[in-house]
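Re: the multi-chain job from yesterday

Posting the exact lines I submitted so nobody has to dig through the queue logs.
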Amino acid sequence: MIWHITKREIYDNLNSLRFALTTGLLIALMATNAVRHLREHPKRVQKYHDAVAASVNLMNSHANDSLYKLAQQGPGKLYKKPSPLHFCTEGGDPLLPDRVEGGSPFQYAEHLTGVWKLEYPDANINMKNVGPDVSQVDWAFIIGYVLSLIALLFTFDALSAERERGTLRLMLANSIPRHTVLISKYLGALISINIPFILAVLLNLLIISTASSVHLNTAAWGRLGIIFLIALLYTSLFLALGLLVSARAQQSAVSLVILLLMWVALVIFMPSTFASIASSSSSSMSPDEFLKHRRLLYDKLSDEYHDQLWSGELDEKTLTGKSEFFIKHAEGRERLNQEFLAQQITQVQHARSISRVSPATLLQHLLESFAGTGFERHLQFLENVKTYARQLRQFVVDTDRADPQSLHIIGVREGMTKRKILPKAIPKFEDTFSFSKDLNTRAIELLLLALFVVALLAGAYLAFVRVEI
Amino acid sequence: MMMTLIRREILDNLMTFRFAAAVFIMLLLVVANTAVLIQDYERRLAGHNTAVKMHQRQLHEKKTYSAGMEKLLVDRPPNPLSILNAGFDKRLGNEVLASHGYVPSLWDANMHGSDNPFMDMFASMNIVFILEVVLSLLALIFAYDAFAGEYENGTLRLVLTHPIGRGYILFAKYIGAMLCLIVPLLISLLLAVILLMMSTSISLSTDDFLRIGGIIFASIAYLSVFYLIGLLISAATRRTSTALMLSMFVWGFLVLVYPNVILAMITRPDAWQAHTASTFNKIEQIWEEFDRERKHLLATDDFPGEDWGFELRGWGSRYAYLWGNPRSLLYTYESVMEFHGFGEKDEHKMPHAQNHFRFLGSEVISTADRTWLIRKPALENIYIQPANVKRTWLKLSPVGLYDATTQALAGTDLRGIRDFFDTARQYRQQVVDYLYDKEAFGSRQWFSSDKEAADWSGLSQFSFQRVNAITNAKRALPDVSLLLTINIALFILIFLIFVKSEV
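And the result, C-alpha cells for all chains:
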C-alpha cells in the first residue's frame, strides 16, 4: 500500500510545474559549479606544486651547504594541499592561510643568526578586494539553500491541500492507517526531489571527471558518496518539517508562510547571527599584548645569556650558551605564536559550535569535513606541520649525533658536523588529509542532523494522527 | 468607490495569518540583529579610539621628523550606518600612512584593531540584508493570490459588474497591499532606530536621519518591485497554485541564485597582470632616476662617497631603502634616522648632511606626486573597473539594485570609503606644507634630536567627515530612479495584461 501511494505521489509531482522548474534550476547551478571548478582548480593545483617545489629546492640548497645551515634555516614555507573536492564546498578556504612559515631565523647581528621556528601567517583578509562579496556556487550552497527551499515547496501542501480538496478524507475512508499515508507522502517527495538532484549531480560529476586536468581518485569518489548521503539526510529534514507544518495547518497558504519564514530563520539568519553573538562574547589576545610578551621573552633570555651571546670565543661553554639561547628563543617564540593562534582558534570553534543549532551550518560543517576543505581541515594541516617540525628537528639531532667528530651543539656552525648530508635523507613534508582523525566531532554533527530528522518525522506523525480531517 | 476598494483590500490583508507572521518575523529578526550589530559597532568604535590615541602618542614620542614619518597613521572611524548596510565598512583597510614619501590610497591601508581575522569566515549580517531577503518574500506571499485567487473565487467578476475601471481595481489592490506591507517594515525599522538612539556610543546627526529616511524610501521601492512581480505572475497565470510556485522560483532565482551565479561566471581578463607589471616597471624607473640623482648629489659633495648618511657615527639608529609592492603598485624611498648624539668629529659634516636631506625631502615629495599621476589611473583600471563591471551585472536583479542604493545612502559603498582616502591625501598635503613651513627637511631635527627635538605641536590632527546627505542622495539617485522605473514598467505591464484578460 505504501508503494502504491508513493507511486501516485511521484506521478503527481513529475507532471507539476515545480518539478520542471527544479530540474532546470538544479542543472543550471550544478553546471555552473562544474565549469567554474574546471577553470579554477588546475590553477590552484599548479600554484601549490610550484610553491612546494620552490620551498623544497630552497631547503635542499641549505642542506647542500651544511647541516648547520639546515638547522638554522629550517624547511621554509610549508603549503596546504588543495582538496580535489573543492567544488563541494569552499568552506572559507580563500580566507584561511594556505601555508605555515618554518624559517625566518632571528637575526641578532650581522653574523649572529638564531634557528628557525614556525610562524603562522594571519588569515588573508582581502583588503584590496573592492568588488562585491558574494558566496560561491558550491554544493554546500546548492544543497543548503536551494535544495532545502525546494524540499519545502514540495511538501508544504502535501497534506493540507488534500484536506482542502477533501481527497484526504476519501483516502482515509479506505482502511489505510495514517502512518502509511505519511510515510508514502514522505517517500514520494524524497524520490521526486532526488530525480532532478541526481540528474544534476551526475551532470556535474560528468563534466568534472571528463576533464583530464582534474583527477578524482577512489577515496574521493567514496567521499562524494557520503556527501550525497548527507545531502539526502538534510533534504529529509526539510521534507519532515514541511510535512509537520502541513499536517497542522488548515490551509496550504498558511502552511507555506510558516515554512518560508522558518526556512529564512533557520538557513539564512541563524548561522550568521549566532556567529556574531559568539564573536562579541569572547575576545582573543590583542596583537599588542602578543608583541609585548614577545619582547619580554627576548629581554629575559638575552639578559640570561648576555655574556656568551656577544662573546667571540669559540670554547665549548660559549658555544653551548649560544646554542641554548638560540633554541630557547626560537622555541619560546614558536610557543607564543601557537598560543596566540590557539586563542583565535578557540574563539572560532566556539562560534562554530554555537551556530550548530542551524541545520544549514551542520550541513556546511559535514560537507567541509568530508570534502577536506574549511576550518577543520586547516587545523589538521597545522597539526601535520607540527609533527613535521618535530621530525625535522629530530633528524638534525640524529644526523649530528651520527658523526663522532662533532661537538653536538645544535645551531652554531662550530658545534655541528661538517659531513655532507644527502637531500634524499631529509624528511619531506607531506600534507595528508586523514578522514578518520577527528571522527568524533563529525559523528556528533551527523547524529545531530539525524536526530533533527527523526524528531521532526515523529512530530509530523503525532501531528497527523491527532488532527481532525 | 476607490476608497471602498482600498479599504476592502486593507481589511482583507490585515486579518490574515500572513500579516501577523510578517510583523512577527520582521520584528524578531530586525530587533535581535540590531542589538547584536550595535554591540559590534561599539567594539569597532572602541578599537578606533584606541588606535587614534595610540598613533597620536607614538607620533609625539618621535624626536626626529624622519622617524615621525613612519608613524603618521590616520584612522577611518567606523560608520554608524554600517549597522543598516555594512558594505565595505568592515572589509577595507581602516588605517593608512600619510607620510611625505607616497600618496596614500585604499590599497596601502591596513586593518587595525585586535579583532580575530578568522572570524571573518562567518557571513556578516546587516539590517538591509534581512530586508532584502524577508521583504521580497513577504511581498510575493501577499501578491501571488491577488488576482489568481479572485479569478478562482469568482469575486473579480462580481467587482467588475460595478461601473468601475479595471485600472482603479489594480490601483486599489496595489495601494491596499502596499499599505499593509509597509506596516511591518516601518515598525521594525523604527524600533531599530530607537535602539540606535538608545545606545550611548552612537550619536546620529540630522544628516544621518535624512540618510535613514532615504533608506526607508528605497526599501519601500524595493518592496513594491517584488509586490508588482508577484502581481504580474498572479495576473498572468490565473491559478493560485501555479502563481505560488512561479513566485517562489522567481524569488529563489533573483535573491539566491542570480547574484552568486553571475559573479561565478564573470572572470577578470588576464591582461591585468601585464598591465600591473608594466605600470610597476614605469614607477620603478621613476624612483631609480630619483636614486641616481641622489647618488649624483652624494658623489659631487665635499665628502664624496656612497653613504647616504655621511658616515655619521652617532648614538641612535638609521636605515634607508627603496622598496615597492608590485601588487598595489606602491614604490617609495623610506629613510628613518633617530640620532640623539654625535661625536665631536662629526660636527663639521652636519651642514652637508642637512643640505643632502633638504634636497632629498623635496625630491621624495615631488617624485611621490609624479608616481601618483601614473599609479592612480592604473589602480583605477586594474582594481576598480572590473569591480564596477561586477556591480553593474549584479544590478540586473532588484536585490543588487537595492543593495547598491542603500550602500550609497549609508555611505558605506566604495565611494564613501574612498572619500576617506581623499581626505587622507589632503592631510598628507597638510603634512608636507607643515614640514616645509618648519623647514624640517633641512633642519637638524630631521635626523637628530641632540640639539632640539622635532616639534609636532603645530600639526593639526586628522579628522574625517562623511559627505553630507545630499551628496549621498545624489550618489544613490541613478539606482533609485532605476528602481522606480522598474516599478512603473511593471505596473504598466500588469495593467495591460489585466485590461486585456477575460474574466
